[in-house]
Specification:
Helix content is 26%, strand content 35%. It is an alpha+beta fold. It starts with 7 loop residues before the first helix and ends in an 11-residue tail after the last strand.
Length: 100
Amino acid sequence: MTSIRRDPSNIVIRPVLTEKSAKLAAELNQYTFKVRLDATKPEIRRAVEKLFNVDVEWVNVMIVKGKPRGMRWLSRGRTARWKKAIVKVKDGQKIDIFEV
């Protein structure tokens, strides 16, 4: 199995901006991102450090299940599952996207 280094902008898809993620960013210095489904913790760490010029302490990842969608019996389906990463940045550093 070869280790291919991917471009950091392809690993981090977008920030997740919710009330909970805003509270985590303000109080605990933790930031939430939607990342590629096949991204690993070390890849996410390197990508966030390179994209936002910060030092990452740790990375937690989880796969968010897709929700059922459809109108009664007409069309059944699900939204796609996706991977969420919560990144803890060292004290005194911030990521500006989350600042309001």
